[in-house]
Amino acid sequence: MEILTTSLRAGKPWPLGGHWDGHGVNFAVFSDHAEAMELCLFDTVGALETGRIFLPARTGNVWHGYLPQAKPGLVYGLRAYGPWNPAKGQRFNPHKLLLDPYARELVGNFVWRDEQFGAHRSHSQAMDTRDNSTFALKARVVGEAYDWGDDKPPAVPLADTVLYELHVKGFSQLNPAVPEALRGSYAGLAHEASITHLKQLGITSLSLLPVHHALDEERLANMHLTNYWGYNSVAFFTPASRLASGYGGLSPRNEFRAMVKALHAHGLEVLLDVVYNHTAESDHTGPTLSFRGLDNASYYRLRADDLSLYENHTGCGNTLDVRHPRVLQLVLDSLRFWVTDMHVDGFRFDLAPVLGRGDHGFDRNAALFAAIAQDPVLSRVKLIAEPWDIGPKGYQLGQFPCGWLEWNDRFRDTMRGFWLPQGRHTHSRGEFALRLCGSADLFQQRHRMPAESVNYVISHDGFTLHDLVSYNHRHNHANGENNHDGTSNNMSNNCGAEGPTHDVAIATLRAKLQRALMASTVLAQGTPMLCAGDEMGHSQHGNNNPYCQNNTTTWIDWTHTDTDLLAFTTKLLRLRRQLQPLGSQWYTGKTDPNGRTDLSWFQSQGEAMHGAAWNAPGGGTLGCLIGKAGGTRQWLLLLVNPQAMDRQFVLPAGSWRALLDTSNVDHDADWEGTSSYPLAAHSLVLLIAA
């Protein structure tokens, strides 16, 4: 190995990372507490270290240098010199090769070995002095040019947005209409067969589970499992290579870009689930991969009572400290990169309260939120918060800045409890109506719009829709945690036998409940989110935490599509587009010349709802009269019956025509009348003034 001594110039302290300017490569690395920073160069596959040189300049807290004549393809890593003193939060160990946090492309496959740990595995306060460079991930300098042609963001209005949460691999891995070489990849999602399904279904915006390069935890690797979901990021600027097919010789970065370009050409938005709350370095017993070795005390929130330990508001061992200006910059630079260089249309932020945590808890005016609000790039994309973490006062639903969308778990729990009641999980008609109409108690009082509530019953995290009505208990044994992980139990499928059944009555009831839950989500006021595969009856066989199941448990089985449910969901989304049944504005209670308000509620005999009727436990039939719905300016009527008994429902004056009845397997509602509607058990009906 050659120790370089003269060829590196001072360069510039920006932009951070390794960047080619057409003549050479500038390197810039942040570290507040390092005493020196060494650049290590490798051969093209990252196997042999070919040279080392200290970055010659420091401006503020950025170390930098410029390597003339260096080109894209150069492979490199970093070594940071400084104090090893875990008790004071310092974990510098120059024996460990570190990944540049701004790496655009990674080299190597991470292997769990003792050499990957900065601290001795048997003595956590002692430095491990073995070199890890043979096994460490490295960065490769890239050229950023890409021909986007006439690509432009679809810019779907929020009122028209329908989110569709999917895993890039699981979506196309088993689709026989996708060429085998492309299945389970960015290219597979961009294939005509995938796009045809998405367009015919009627969704507008794909919310992709994490695509940042992530690692499998050591525990999973030892069990020969993987972190399939990918919530364990190590590189915030790098598309995961495991999701790339390599078809046509494209790099993962350019295959991702080609996917976005193809989806945009069909009017489909691409949103990313991003994990800026923690990194794959885990707690004080975890590996030293990048951030920990570059400046542990700056990148992470350390415990005030013991700086050798980490605050763990994420449940993943560590918490990124977005209070630090350079860590804040890292998050913002990464977000801008994905919008400007990769053309994505928005983000869903995992455990988002972490990003708003100051010195004294969550703050909706935190620096990150303020920076995004004034940013000319980021302020224009869709921003969605998962509004909870596991830290003190971590539940912040409704508390994010105006313009942000939030996953509404109150909607999820209410709809489940209303249609699948059991004991304390039963939800009243009042709670159902409140969630159906945008959760005004959470959003309206802060001058936020109904669309900022992301309404969902199913997400990647939990049972699928099919399994929600089919299993009373989780079946997570394959995860290797003795079935102790995941949600403890379902609210009750209320459908008799658990799991697959040949009983026609049970199967019929399960199908009715799936349709009722789907309709409640799609027709509600707010932004609906569907989980990929639910429209086709996808089952995970009762596993409600399949984060480590990279197999047919999670891959959508296209050959066993529930065609009735798919047709029903397609019709639902078409009705939403055409009618916008609950509109995008809050209801005022004002009356029209006939004395009818823009939104009114009544019981099955036509009597208006009152206090006791709203709050009676166990749910009950309910009617909602909607004045001049957004898409038609006509009156709509929504009837719901979660109970096990059919009802005759007295209708408001006038002639009514049924558009949808979830009790019908063919979902055709061939009914028109003026007096009462035969409202079946476990059903939802939508009617329009004839």
What does this entry look like structurally?
The protein is of the alpha/beta class. Among the domains are: 2-140, Immunoglobulin-like; 599-689, Immunoglobulin-like, CATH 2.60.40.1180. It is 20% helix and 22% strand. It has 15 helices and 36 strands. The strands form 10 sheets. It has an 8-stranded parallel beta barrel. β2 (17-20) and β3 (24-30) form a beta hairpin. α9 (409-419) crosses α10 (429-436) and α13 runs parallel beside α14. The chain is elongated. The model has no long low-confidence stretch (mean pLDDT 95).
Number of helices: 15
Overall body shape: elongated
- Give the helix/strand class: alpha/beta
Question: What distance lies between the first and last C-alpha atoms, to the nearest angstrom?
Answer: 83 Å
Global mean pLDDT: 95
Helix content: 10-25%
* Rg measurement, Å: 27 Å
- CATH fold name of the domain at 2-140: Immunoglobulin-like
CATH architecture of the domain at 2-140: Sandwich
Fourth-tier CATH superfamily name of the domain at 2-140? Immunoglobulins
* Major sheet size, sense and barrel closure: 8 strands, parallel, barrel
Beta-strand residue percentage? 15-25%
Q: Write out the strand line-up for the largest beta sheet, numbering strands in chain order.
A: 15-16-19-22-25-26-27-28
List the helices and strands and how they pair.
Blueprint: E1 2-3, E2 17-20, E3 24-30, E4 36-42, E5 49-54, E6 57-59, E7 62-68, E8 75-81, E9 84-85, E10 90-91, E11 106-107, E12 119-120, E13 123-127, E14 138-140, E15 163-166, H1 168-172, H2 186-189, H3 192-201, E16 205-208, E17 212-214, H4 218-222, E18 233-239, H5 252-265, E19 269-274, H6 291-299, E20 302-303, E21 306-310, H7 325-340, E22 346-349, E23 357-358, E24 361-362, H8 367-374, E25 382-385, E26 405-408, H9 409-419, H10 429-436, H11 440-443, E27 453-455, H12 465-468, H13 504-523, E28 527-531, H14 563-579, E29 599-602, H15 611-615, E30 622-626, E31 636-641, E32 647-650, E33 656-661, E34 672-673, E35 676-679, E36 683-689
Helix pairs in contact: 9-10, 13-14
